[in-house]
Specification:
single chain; Dehydroquinate synthase-like, alpha domain; six-stranded parallel sheet; 13 helices; alpha/beta; Rossmann fold; 12 strands; two-stranded antiparallel sheet; about 350 residues
């Protein structure tokens, strides 16, 4: 449960949730729904989702799959369907897919007729542990990732772990990056559990995955409840993301998966924290080793320069009054949002983090 007073909502995690008609319908207050999915997910799970809607009037819009399509032009396809089918303010938008679908459907729901109902059905590990929870929605702009969007909470999140059976291994690893993040920011015991159980997660052990998803969602729910609109503590959830967003933008959206960029970004944050004397050599090595065990990159791409990183990082939502804030670490499980570093600190970390 994400505790936001009257806007609180449940998170369901488990097997065989797709197909439970009552589970979905109890969170749909009106008589109509628009399912938003993509070309990869729709052939697998669209019919199951349609069946859960019973006799409710509904339509589906299928988007192309990939981060490079997370833009205003493709977003218009959702608005086109909402308007063409004359959906009113009591309709429900259902996001069926990964983080891109969730972000775009969420933003459409937030802005169509100034806000309609939203339900998230995440089908990737990354979206189940992170992007479907907390209400961040939006699209990318050529000059910056997620710079156009809104905070908009769903009525429910339904995470069916069976959908992970069809997830490519690369996507599974990308989701694990966000799971590692929760251990690093505030839960050293969970980080140690991940060190002991990474092989089970990569092997898609259902018990291990369910536990990791539950801990991740609970952690994020607690942070969001304390700081819904990212005025303070919630910014900790961006560990590795300022570096990672620069990689995604610099390489071209979709070349690196979001989780891959975050994995390298967390290692970059660990290296910078270590160089500043905030994080021990041992904890830095543990961080990099765990990211590596998850089959994720630990270094920035060699084609990017430190100067390019700095230029791209300066176009970031965590920049306030011209000052770039970074999420760094004072040990595993103890992250901080800070601008207390010098340009030399950042440049030195970037130089060491870029792959030779």
């Amino acid at each position: 449960m994400v505790d936001l007073g009257e806007r609180s909502y449940p998170i369901y995690i488990g097997e065989s949730l797709l197909g439970q008609t009552e589970l979905l319908q109890q969170h749909i207050p009106g008589k109509s729904a628009l399912i938003v999915s993509n070309e990869t997910v729709a052939p697998l799970y669209l019919e199951k989702t349609r069946a859960m809607l019973g006799g409710l009037r509904h339509e589906a819009v299928i988007l192309p799959d990939g981060e490079k399509y997370k833009n205003l032009e493709v977003l218009n396809r959702i608005y086109d369907s909402l308007l063409r089918n004359r959906f009113d303010r009591n309709t429900t938008v259902i996001a069926l897919g990964g983080g891109v679908v969730g972000d775009m459907a969420g933003f459409a729901a937030a802005s169509y007729q100034r806000g309609v109902h939203l339900i998230q059905i995440p089908t990737t590990l990354l979206s189940q542990v992170d992007s479907s929870v907390g209400g961040k929605t939006g699209v990318n702009h050529p000059l910056g990732k997620n710079m156009i969007g809104a905070f908009y909470q769903p009525r429910a999140v339904i995470a069916d772990t069976d959908t992970l059976d069809t997830l490519p291994q690369r996507e599974l690893s990308a989701g694990i990056a966000e799971i590692i993040k929760y251990g690093l920011i505030c839960n050293a015991d969970f980080f140690s559990w991940l060190e002991d159980n990474m092989s089970l997660l990569l092997a898609r052990d259902k018990t291990a995955l369910a536990y990791a998803i539950e801990v991740s969602c609970r952690t994020k729910a607690e942070v969001v409840a304390a700081d819904e609109r990212e005025s303070g503590k919630r910014a900790l959830l961006n560990l590795g993301h300022t570096f990672g967003h620069a990689i995604e933008n610099g390489m071209g959206y979709g070349v690196w998966l979001h989780g891959e960029a975050v994995g390298a970004g967390m290692c970059m944050a660990a290296i910078m924290s270590n160089q500043m004397g905030w994080m021990s050599d041992e904890e830095t090595e543990r961080t990099i080793k765990l990211v590596e065990q998850a089959k994720l990159p630990t270094k920035a791409p060699p084609s990017m320069s430190a100067e390019q990183f700095i230029n791209l990082m300066s176009v970031d939502k965590k920049v306030l009054d011209g000052v770039m804030r970074l999420v760094l670490m004072k040990g595993i499980g103890n992250s901080v949002v800070t601008s207390d570093y010098s340009p030399e600190d950042l440049n030195r970390a970037l130089q060491q983090s870029i792959a030779a």
